[in-house]
Amino acid sequence: QVQLVESGGGLVQAGGSLGLSCAASGSIFNFNAMGWYRQAPGKERELVAVTSDGRINYAASVKGRFTISRDNLKNTVYLQMNSLKPEDTAVYYCNLNTGLRTYWGQGTQVTVSS
């Protein structure tokens, strides 16, 4: 059974930075995709960034401001968020996709004040 435990998030002023981390337990392989999604109030959940087997993809809205990284020894994925904007306010969810199943973290709130 895979579990994802997130940490980080919180409240920050526009232009500030925050970091998120997500530790996965269970049978994890380096080629499994791990990433971050977010959901703002009244909006659908959207991809923020994902990494799989060394490849990385970012949403256009965060490219150049957010950085995703992964420590395969620790089964942990990180999201460093810089130059935050009020529109980045959302609940951020960690995601693991094995190709057969998708797992989600519990979500962590990120609030950016203007």
Walkthrough of the structure:
The protein contains no helices and eleven strands. Helix content is 0%, strand content 57%. Strands 2, 4, 5, 6, 9, 10 and 11 form a seven-stranded mixed beta sheet that branches. It is globular, with a radius of gyration of 13 Å. The relative contact order is 0.33. It has strands spanning 3-8, 10-13, 18-25, 33-39, 46-52, 55-58, 66-71, 76-81, 90-97, 102-104, 108-113. The chain has 114 residues and is mostly beta strands.
Put the structure in a nutshell:
This protein has strands spanning 3-8, 10-13, 18-25, 33-39, 46-52, 55-58, 66-71, 76-81, 90-97, 102-104, 108-113. It is mostly beta strands and 114 residues long.
Radius of gyration: 13 Å
Low-confidence stretches: none
Report the average pLDDT across residues. 95
Specify the overall morphology: globular
What structural class do you assign from the helix and strand content?
Answer: mainly beta
Total number of strands? 11
How many distinct helices? 0
Secondary-structure element sequence?
A: EEEEEEEEEEE
| Major sheet characteristics | 7 strands, mixed
**Straight-line N-to-C gap:** 41 Å
| Beta-strand residue fraction | over 45%
In helices, the fraction of residues equals under 10%
List keywords for this structure.
114 residues, mainly beta, 7-stranded mixed beta sheet, 4-stranded antiparallel beta sheet, 57% strand
